[in-house]
Amino acid sequence: MQIIEYEEKYLEDVKDLLVELEEYILSIDEDNLDQLHPDYRDKMSLLDLQEVNGNNGKCYLAIENDKAVGLIMGIIKKFDENDYLDYKCPKEGEITELIVTNKIRSNGIGQELMNKMEEYFKSVGCEYILVDVFAYNKKGIDFYNKQGYHSRMYTEIKKIN
């Protein structure tokens, strides 16, 4: 297994991985608010890759037998002048996607992808790394906690109808 920077020849694998991630989110969404739109597979990967390219980010792939079996995407967070009113705005990297296919999860591939992204963020002078984790994703929360991440904000939700 090797970690490489995104190559377009793996686009179909990236689409499959993102669908697998969304299907997992759907399976644990206790609020039933997420969905897998028919256009998700073809559009979301392109939107994610555009976000990476437009924000000095990177997409790394875990490749095994010439197939992408994991991916991580990250961007450099941008601030506007209003953000500085109540925040110091240190240079921050943000992990926007992380998935290792279920067939080979728990073999250290997620850790390798995280290490690669953290190396990149350090190399461009980031002071912090942020990652949003779905509240019902207990496995993801545990994974990030083991990597040294902790909660800074919580989003609360209440259904009113």
Describe this structure as you would to a colleague.
There is one protein chain. This protein has 161 residues and is α+β, with helices and mostly antiparallel strands. It has one domain: 3-Layer(aba) Sandwich (Aminopeptidase), CATH 3.40.630.30. It is built from four helices and five strands, in the order E-H-H-E-E-E-H-E-H. A five-stranded mixed β-sheet has the order 1-2-3-4-5, sandwiched between helices. Helix 3 (109-123) links the parallel strand 4 and strand 5. Helix 1 (11-28) crosses helix 2. The longest helix has 18 residues, at 11-28. It starts with a strand and ends in a 15-residue tail after the last helix. The mean pLDDT is 93.
Mean pLDDT across all residues, rounded? 93
Distance between the termini: 49 Å
Strand content: 15-25%
Number of strands: 5
**Count of individual helical segments:** 4
- What class, by secondary structure content? alpha+beta
